[in-house]
Prior knowledge:
Distance between the termini: 34 Å
Strand content: 15-25%
Shape: globular
Amino acid sequence: MGGCTNCKGKGACDDHKSTMMGSVEAAMEALYPTRVWGEPDENASPIEPMSADDLDGLAEELATELRAATFVRYGGDDEPCDYIYVLCMGRAPCGIQVRDHGVPVPDEWANVESPEQGIDELYLRLCIAQRTRHAALQQVAVNIVRADVSPTARGSSASISSSIPSVTQMPQSGPISIISDVPTRPKTGKVPRWLIPTGYVIRESPRAGVYDAPLLSRMQKLVAILPAYDLVHVDFGDIAHAPPGFTAGEWPETYGVGTAKPAIANYLFYPQPTTMVSTTYIATGEADALDDDAPPEDPPSGPHHRADTDRDREDSEDMS
């Protein structure tokens, strides 16, 4: 039998985890004196976030040591962390470059062998806290599919409704898939081709840790580099649960997750659920209208109609 119980290094590992979690608990107590999610004491930590130069330097070193392309993404206004993506399966230009860095959609995306399945990529996503010196790793799958091979391509309005739910059609629980910035759908009949969005749907699906064997070697090398940047690596599995003694605050209502509670990772790194799926629609141009299926002279307008942009993007999120 293998595993942690009989591992000869279990004692040292336990000591390491004890130290690691001790630093996490100390950071939680300092950052959240009220023990309520969403109420951090911004003056509690004198730690300065990693500078853009340091992030770029770390990404460059990871690219060299791991022999993989790396990409920095700065956290949003509500995300007290930054990210470095390590491309482990796939090739550049990849989905993260197109989605986050303005790289043009490569021509080869239009010629994949299985358009319905699309392109699959696999990443290590390094989350680097801005208010503490902690970092954590997640395995992230990215799927890229042409929008015009979805059920919206040649189906009924029911097909569109199933693939792109409106606000009133969203389920109350389970995975939610929303693609923003698509034209208004007809209520009945065949979907006119001019209503079909052209472009690509990029779906990012994180897991609460790193699980696939092909990623483990790179993960170990990455973790070994972090101390040189004064970063403490935290096993994601140890921060994917709710901290005892803390209150969820407005988190359940904010993310529509019922009675679920925020994980430790949501206090230290980012607010969204740790395995929440994000879906981004990348527009590449207008659809080619058929002779008998052309748009009217005055196409419908509204919050989802696009008539004057060559390329734009709208992010939306799936919560699981």
